[in-house]
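Q: Structure tokens for this one, please.
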Amino acid sequence: MTHLLGRILISLFACGINLSVGAVSAWQPFEWVSARLFGQTEPHAAILLRIPYQGKTCLVQLDTGFHGITSGSSPAHLREAVDQWFDGAETGPIGEHMRCGSLGAGYFAGSTLAIDFKAQRLRRIGQTSAISSPAGEPLKLITVPDWDGFFPVVEVEFPPLGRIPVMIDTGAAAFGVALFEESDWQVITAQTSIATDTAARGQTRAQCQSTVESQPVSIGTQLSRELHLSHCIAADFKPPAGVRGVLGMKAFESDVLYLDFVKGQWHVSASDQSAPVL
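A: Here is the predicted structure, written as tokens:
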């Protein structure tokens, strides 16, 4: 089941880096999907990949909050198509578009995912390429029984909750920090003004709330951002144990985010659109 916030949005529809060139795929473009949220259009609501697949164009959402590797009617075939896309293989003419599901963090097991948000591009870095700088922050990978992927988890800190573990979720790109627990959210709402919205989630509706003003949030030990805090309620969603929320992509909109699933580290560097494409 796709992560709660990712499904909500899709229904609305190198400093410190040591690269081994032979193991690095080319940069590949992605597209932003917009959505209406809290009374305004959010231009960066979800990350969409256009993957050539059997003569057609598969529209695939990059969703690190998705529990599996790939979703859709033929996940193994989709994974092969994604492999070829990252490797820059020639695919021939591309025909009609179709929705093909999601690409989860599990796809990048044993490698590093690099996302350049400002330049709207991403790439996969192989096993010999990882974050070698002391600036690398811990990245915990949480697995769930009977699921074939994992969730990347980091720590954030903000008053009055303090430091809590949250999932890095590209499927919730439009959010800052979204809290799972009602008790955590009640602590927040006691101190600030709240905006409310209702969003579609499949055949159901999810109640979402957000702080009107942004809040100072520390991510790891070296990154600080001003982000909105939010909370969504859906009766059929059960978050992974030990995770108290998600960190959306609002924190990284002008950065390159590296998620190293080899060493279990993450790192951010400034986007450099003039850098050579390896």
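A few notes: The longest strand covers residues 40-53. Confidence is low (pLDDT under 50) at residues 7-22, 274-278.
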